[in-house]
Amino acid sequence: TGTQRGVVLVFDLFGEVRQKLGKSAGEGSGSVTSIDLSVSGETIVAGYTSGIVVWWDVIKGSVLKSISDSHHSPITIVRFVNETSIISVDASGLVYKLNFSKAVMWANYSVDSECLLDGTAGQILSMHILPPLSSLKLSPSAIEKHCCRNLSLIALSSERSSFAVAVEPSVNVLHRWARVSPGTEVPAAESSFLPCLAWGWALISGGGVNQTPVLARAWGSSLQL
């Protein structure tokens, strides 16, 4: 849980506080606006109103890396792509992929930033990351042979458009499509609804025996796959 005082509280399954992250390193960062826990449960990423993104070691309660030069607006979304890569989004519509790496001879982590969207699309209202192939109940050999084994996808929506973006093995905007224009029979209140995105894996016609990434987008009463 993130707090207005810039502290991240980590609870166990019994509701007991196990860590308080941000007692010193989080000072001056502002309120916590978004957090995400890695799949392993060993690290947490937190975004703050100041635009700072902090990567935390949950076990030690220490900062692994603090990034202050990518965003200058409040962070609205932070999500893990994998254990050492995250997506960060701020209120101005800037979207970054942050890749952490650790040199063999050094104890500190470095970060490589890649800009996915430069803010011209407007504020990002929704984002979803494709669950990893390992989330499917496939054998190790089936995963190794799968055509999407190295692929990581995200989807984002602004007020006007949605984007499907590949972030691994390389960054590439795969598709952009505009918001569906409401028909005359749709109430005026429909325009105030926010988009909702969700990735999943499914068997589709022409896809063979391999499950394929499928994106669902809902916007008001419109649902698209």
UniProtKB/TrEMBL annotation:
SUPFAM superfamilies xrefs: WD40 repeat-like (SSF50978)
Protein name per its UniProtKB record: Uncharacterized protein
Coiled-coil region: none
Gene Ontology cellular component annotations, sorted alphabetically: HOPS complex; late endosome
Gene3D superfamilies linked: YVTN repeat-like/Quinoprotein amine dehydrogenase
Pfam family, any one: Beta-prop_VPS8
Top-level taxon of the source organism: Eukaryota
Gene Ontology BP annotations: endosomal vesicle fusion; protein targeting to vacuole
